[in-house]
Design goal:
The strands form 9 sheets. Strands 24, 25, 26, 27, 28 and 29 form a 6-stranded mixed beta sheet that branches. Strands 1-6-5-4-7 form a 5-stranded mixed beta sheet, with no helix packed on it. The chain has a 5-stranded mixed beta sheet with strand order 9-16-15-11-12, with no helix packed on it. The longest helix is centred in the middle third of the chain and has 21 residues. The chain is of the alpha+beta class.
Length: about 700
């Protein structure tokens, strides 16, 4: 014989679980659920009291009835799931308990099929006080629909219909009082019985989106009552949040950078390097998605939703069933744009970034960014979205460079192993940096054959230095600390360059020449001319887009040609003696551990010089060495304008924000253009948006048929 008792509230503690196929209350129960759709029972019904609205009594019935039973047990396969085993059939049944039925003589009321729940262990008798056994929304539930949050209150016994009035449930939120505080504002509601034990509460007007509300179920004589007059012992109070409406289009500015649309909604940027630049094929892209909503000035600060959880994804814009471009990010905490700190913006946390898409050319015309607020129980989820039209560029370009070592100066008898290793590391590091900053799919920098200068190089270099000295009329005004025959040594120069160059530089410096030695085009032209001839003789040009020639730092430094490089040019234009290269050439010094300078592998100088090859000029422009030094000192530690993008890792799975407004994710404070005229570490540099646009043009095949003019 089955025995059914009413399930006491305490027996359900710890047994409520969230289900995906939610029932009316948004919960499932582990235990046994029994339903009796039909049957005939006989026995005793004792009426204890009759009022104008209800009939109160107790009953004890038995007989045979159709019993449908569901056994619900925990499922270890995942959180919030239960296994359900069903059985049905005619069974002997005993039912006993108390009742408080409506008095049908004075009012009409239809009660639904009786449904009770049986705990795994026996129950207990009802307590005298009325109890609220469950409610929906749950305490602190998020992302409720603002049109109707679906407020349902289920009690432990039938309710007195006469007590079901709007006064028994208060729904309210906090309005701004103008002084940072809140003034509570009620919301008019309608109350009705959904069934004998369940009260439905419906707001009479849509709620505000993105607002916290408080529900109070009143206790005592003025509150809801059971059918036998039972009252709640204390007020029941909890709160919930309505969903933020990302379909709004109100103007907003707080927390948004200049490149974004200053309106509420969902916006995305698909970035390969520079923001708002056309996409190219086969290059990793990042999709930055911005949820944008503003503070409501009418709502008190403590009653506004400033964050919520959502699933974030991206797909082709015009096919709602199209596969996602990359895996979605689930249960991401989204925050209102004005709530982020400077450090969080710098690190890119003001958006949700999806990585992993490597697009084909014109793969899609537009992208749809979707934000689905997380609901504890929702069969038809709400999805907010924004469409981003995509622009494509047909450029399909890889870069191939070679690097060689010039056996000159201190390296005349061979390149030290440490410098060879430094050169290889510099080349490998530059490969990744070029891929991250240029609109290319791949950059390769390979080792080439040794480059030995011709025997005439030493004589030509000495002649160039002597010509400068004579032109400046310095031979007769030598400092006392300088050997008087230093200039005559040039006539007998045999290749031991370092002592000679030291005396030359010292003499010129002491004489205070208006134009320093390293600005002398004749010296640079001499070096470049021999670089050209040596590369050609060694067959080092190959099929490379350019060749990097590594040289000793101390040798170049004494020559004064440049501290870091001798400047890449297709042609060194002198009217009487032009030098046209078979391939562009980059002359680059290797510092070594005792130079006091950062190692070339850590700097952006190779990528900087490759930028020069394809038409990028210094930013800011400088014309003299003194101006260069002043500019480098003045802009140290600053963020220069014109930079907005992301440095994406070569594997496409991560990236660092680079933004003149938001900051540099890799380096607090400083963010400078790639073409900054002074050497800087890679994390401090990024390409400007206009320079990236220029590369999309100059990297096209045949774009640089005419050699660039050289400048000192």
């Amino acid at each position: 014989m089955d025995q059914l008792d009413v399930l006491p509230h305490e027996a359900g503690v710890g047994r409520d679980v969230t289900e995906y196929d939610c029932d009316m209350d948004g919960v499932g129960q582990a235990g046994t659920r029994t339903r009796i759709p039909t049957g005939q029972l006989t026995g005793m019904v004792h009426i204890e009291r009759i009022t104008d609205t209800k009939v109160i009594g107790r009953f004890a019935l038995s007989g045979t009835a159709m019993v449908e039973r569901e056994h619900r047990t925990w499922n270890g396969q995942g959180a919030g799931r239960v296994d359900i085993d069903r059985e049905a059939g005619d069974k002997p049944l005993e039912v006993s308990g108390r009742f408080a039925a409506p008095n049908m003589r004075n009012m009409g009321y239809a009660i639904s099929t009786l449904e009770t729940a049986q705990a795994p262990s026996g129950g207990t008798a009802l307590a005298d006080a009325l109890r609220l056994v469950s409610h929906r929304p749950a305490r602190d539930e998020k992302n409720l629909p603002w049109e109707d949050p679906g407020i349902r209150l289920r009690f432990d016994r039938p309710l007195d219909p006469a007590s079901v009035t709007p006064a028994v449930v208060h729904l309210e939120t906090g309005l701004a009082d103008g002084q940072g505080g809140a003034v509570m504002a009620p919301v008019h509601v309608r109350t009705r019985l959904a069934n004998a034990e369940t009260l439905a509460v419906t707001p009479q007007e849509p709620l505000r989106d993105g607002v916290r509300y408080r529900v109070t179920v009143r206790a005592g004589p003025g509150g809801i009552r059971g059918a036998a007059g039972e009252q709640l012992a204390v007020d029941q109070v909890w709160g919930f949040d309505t969903m933020v409406d990302l379909d709004d289009n109100e103007f907003m500015k707080a927390g948004l950078t200049r490149h974004l649309d200053w309106h509420e909604g969902v916006e995305s940027d698909t970035i390969q390097v520079a923001t708002n630049a056309p996409l190219v094929r086969d290059k990793p892209a990042a999709i930055r998605i911005y949820p944008k909503w503003r503070a409501d000035p009418q709502i008190a600060p403590g009653w506004q939703v400033t964050a919520f959880e959502a699933h974030v994804r991206a797909r082709p814009a015009f096919d709602p069933q199209a596969p996602l471009l990359v895996p979605e990010r689930r249960e991401v905490r989204l925050r209102r744009p004005d709530m982020f700190t400077e450090a969080e913006r710098r690190k890119g946390e003001s958006s949700v970034t999806l990585f992993g898409w490597v697009p084909d050319f014109e793969e899609i015309a537009a992208l749809r960014a979707e934000i689905e607020p997380v609901r504890e129980c929702e069969e038809a989820p709400r999805v907010f979205s924004g469409v981003e039209p995509l622009e494509w560029d047909p450029l399909d370009r890889d870069l191939s460079l070679g690097y060689v070592f010039a056996e000159v100066g201190p390296w005349a008898d061979g390149v030290p192993p440490g410098r060879r290793q430094e050169g290889a590391q510099a080349a490998q590091s530059a490969e990744s940096f070029i891929e991250q900053l240029f609109p290319v799919g791949e950059a390769r920098i390979e080792s080439g054959p040794p480059v030995r200068f011709s025997p005439d190089f030493a004589e030509d270099l000495a002649a160039a230095i002597r010509e400068i000295a004579l032109a400046e009329s310095v031979a007769s005004t030598i400092d006392d600390d300088v050997p008087e025959d230093w200039l005559d040594q040039l006539d007998a120069y045999t290749g031991d360059t370092m002592p000679l160059l030291r005396e030359t530089k010292k003499s010129f410096a002491n004489l205070g020449l208006a134009d320093a030695l390293y600005k002398r085009n004749d010296i640079r032209r001499t070096i470049l001319s021999h670089v050209h001839d040596s590369l050609d003789a060694a067959g080092a040009y190959g099929d490379y887009d350019a060749v990097i020639v590594f040289m000793p730092y101390d040798w170049l430094q004494l020559l004064g040609v440049a501290n870091w490089d001798i400047g890449p040019r297709f042609m060194w234009p002198e009217a009487d003696q032009p030098i046209t290269f078979t391939r562009p050439v980059i002359g680059m010094s290797l510092t070594g551990p005792r130079s006091g300078k950062p190692g070339i592998p850590s700097l952006g100088v190779i990528t900087h010089e490759v930028g020069h090859l394809f038409g990028l000029e210094h930013r800011p422009a400088v014309t003299t060495a003194a101006e260069r030094r002043r500019m480098c000192d003045a802009l140290e530690g600053t963020r220069m304008n014109g930079i907005e993008g992301m440095r994406i890792a070569p594997d496409g799975d991560s990236g660092a924000v680079k933004s003149s407004e938001d900051g540099n994710a890799e380096m607090k404070g400083e963010l400078l253009p790639l073409m900054f005229p002074c050497a800087r570490a890679k994390p401090r540099l990024f390409i400007t948006q206009d320079h990236y646009a220029k590369l999309l043009e100059t990297l096209r095949p045949g774009a640089f048929q005419v050699p660039l003019p050289g400048t000192p």
